[in-house]
Design goal:
Layout (H helix, E strand, L loop, with lengths): L3 E2 L5 E3 L2 E3 L1 H9 L5 H4 L1 E3 L5 E3 H11 L10
Length: 70
């Protein structure tokens, strides 16, 4: 299901708003790793998992205080 990404990083789908993990739980009805549940469309129209993007960013932007570690 499509969701809108808000300025604070939360997602909104319908009348529910929450983190990637809360939204995955809300939509699936079961505990879910939000990093593995969501994808974005790349410049070629292909869906790419946000977990893959997070891994690529963590490899190219080394930081002990990375905000993308989940």
């Amino acid at each position: 299901q499509p969701a809108l990404i808000l300025a604070n990083g939360h997602l909104r789908a319908g009348d529910f708003t929450g983190s990637i993990h809360q939204m995955a739980l809300h939509l699936s009805g079961a505990p879910s790793n939000g990093w593995e549940c969501w994808s974005v469309e790349d410049e070629n129209g292909e869906l790419v998992s946000i977990d893959i993007i997070r891994q690529q960013l963590n490899r190219t932007t080394p930081s002990e205080n990375s905000t993308l570690t989940g």
